[in-house]
Amino acid sequence: MITLFFLSSPTIYEMYHHLFLIRPVFKLSATAATAAVVVAVVVVILVAVVVVVVVFAAVTGAAAAATAAAPVVVVVVVVVVVVVVVVIRF
Fold first, then answer.
1. For the chain, what is the total number of helices (H) and then of strands (E)?
2. Angle in degrees, CA 58, 63, 40, rounded to 5
3. What 3-state class would DSSP assign to 33?
4. How many domains in the chain?
5. Minimal CA–CA distance to 41: which of 79, 15, 75?
6. pLDDT, tens digit, for every residue of 21-70?
7. Who has the most CB within 10 Å: 6, 9, 14, 39?
8. CA distance 71 to 55
9. Domain extent at residue 39
């Protein structure tokens, strides 16, 4: 089941290619499409960081470290979303 999920999930290249294919339909500028790809990459990196922190906390028993890192991740995600919305709007 997990293998099927990973096989069916798009790669970063496919997402980037898809964004440029739909650009004329939605009138996305190249900057907006690039910003969307950057956000996708940042989100993937953030998810990887969260997974590493959770696994590290589970292995070492450092629940306090995971609890302290959670608000930082949320703030970073919110800032990235706001920046992307501003870039796409203007």
1. 4, 0
2. 75
3. helix
4. 1
5. 15
6. 554 445 556 667 777 777 777 777 777 777 777 777 777 776 666 666 67
7. 39
8. 17
9. 2-89
